[in-house]
Amino acid sequence: MSLGDDGGKVLVVDDSPATADRIKSILSPRHTVDLEPEPQEGLFRAAEGDYDLAIISLNLRQIDGLRLCSHLRSLDRTRLLPILVVVDPEDNVRLLRGLDLGSTTISCDRSTATKCWHECARRFAANDSPIACATTCR
Fold first, then answer.
1. Which of 28, 30, 94, 124 is the most exposed place for a label (fewest CB within 10 A)?
2. Whole-model pTM?
3. What is the 3-state secondary structure of the chain?
4. How far, in Å, CA of 93 to CA of 134, rounded?
């Protein structure tokens, strides 16, 4: 399955219930969205599930989100899984580190978050796969 307007399976790894719920509410009308607050469980679920996209927060309390992305890239099963990284726009250092990993960035704020997420989904469907998205959903 691909992540286009007709659906897809998305894993959200974020330990902020408000952010995870917001992402799910934006994407769930068109996509199946699984939420995972625990990074280690997110790694296992991504490796065992048949996901079209993983959305990972860089603001995780237990592990750096970039480290989780690195773990996903190191596994054969998840090496090609598109990853969308959620980072606050003000966090330039971590955003640049995401860009160093070969990402594209889309910046948006709370007022344009829904449009931003749908644009990200459109890009994934078109195989123009960014792995970082700077957004403020909090």
1. 28
2. 0.73
3. CCCECCECEEEEECCCHHHHHHHHHHHCCCCEEEEECCHHHHHHHHHHCCCCEEEEECCCCCCCHHHHHHHHHHCCCCCCCCEEEEECCCCHHHHHHHHHCCCCCCEECHHHHHHHHHHHHHHHHCCCCCCEEEECCC
4. 12
**9/97 Cα distance (integer angstroms):** 26
17-73 pLDDT, tens digit per residue, is 988 898 898 888 889 999 999 999 999 999 998 998 888 888 888 888 888 888 888
Contact status, residue 66 vs residue 90, Cβ threshold 8 Å: no
**Residue 4: beta bridge partners?**
7
In angstroms, rounded to a whole number, what is the distance separating the alpha carbons of residues 57 and 107?
15
The model's pLDDT over 99-115, given as tens digits with 9 standing for 90+, comes to: 565 454 444 555 555 66
Distance CA 46, CA 23 (A): 17
Domain ranges of the chain: 9-135
CATH 3.40.50.2300 fits 9-135, yes or no: yes
Output the six-digit token pair for 55: 């959305």
